[in-house]
Amino acid sequence: MHGPATAGWLLVALCVATGGYCLLRMRSGVDEQRRWAGSEALMGFGMAVMAVPAAVLPPPRWVWTVYAAVFGGAALYTVLRSRLPAYRAHGTHHLLGILAMVYMAGAMAAAPGGAHGTHTAGGAPLVTGALLIYYAAYVLRTGGRLLPLPAGAGPGADGTVAVADGTVTVTSGAGATAGAGGRWGDRTELALACRLSMGIAMLAMLLTI
């Protein structure tokens, strides 16, 4: 119905919105929300730039080399952080996402003319296929977690819900924070929605490799 450029701009808008909310999460009063927010903002804005249609802004080949270097440094930083107990829950998924960015940047640098966005780039089919399978499963799993809970399936008697994927749903006690009713930067369901959006964006971009 619309050309590939329209899909590219929609993807850019999605990634910019996701990165912007991740910046908001960096100011959250909940430690679990802040832990990965900065790196996820970097990924969101990085994917937004990568998704700009090539017909509008064709980048020189060296841009992708810089991309690979930046996200390679982010991958090393993630490996170092993931060794700490508090960062292990979400560290593996986060590291895989950053390495996927390095892979896509390398594939685009190797493509004729440094193609990007909606243009086909050169990549390894097995690696691309494995990433597509992983992100398809991740999107389905994360989307399922955003579905409404059945009646009576809310928090336990003490008001606590377990931490999953580096996010907190509800905590109890004097300093309790409700994932659904706190400040915008503290809302667990919005953090999950951001990760779901980035997973969908990653799927869309991997399909062009």
Summarize the structure.
With 209 residues, the chain is mostly helical. The chain has helices spanning 4-25, 31-34, 37-51, 61-82, 88-110, 125-145, 188-206.
What does this protein look like?
This protein is mainly α and 209 residues long. The protein has one domain (4-146, 158-206). Helix content is 60%, strand content 0%. It is built from seven helices and no strands. Helix 1 packs antiparallel against helix 3, helix 1 (4-25) runs antiparallel to helix 7 (188-206) and helix 6 runs antiparallel to helix 7 (188-206). The radius of gyration is 18 Å and the shape is globular. The two termini are 22 Å apart.
Helices and strands, in order, run as: HHHHHHH
The 3D shape can be described as globular
* Total tally of structural domains: 1
How would you sum up the major sheet? Answer: none
Treating each run of at least 4 consecutive H or I residues as one helix, how many helices? 7
List keywords for this structure.
209 residues; 7 helices; mainly alpha; globular; 0% strand
Secondary-structure map:
Layout: H1 4-25, H2 31-34, H3 37-51, H4 61-82, H5 88-110, H6 125-145, H7 188-206
Helix pairs in contact: 1-3, 1-7, 3-5, 3-7, 4-5, 6-7
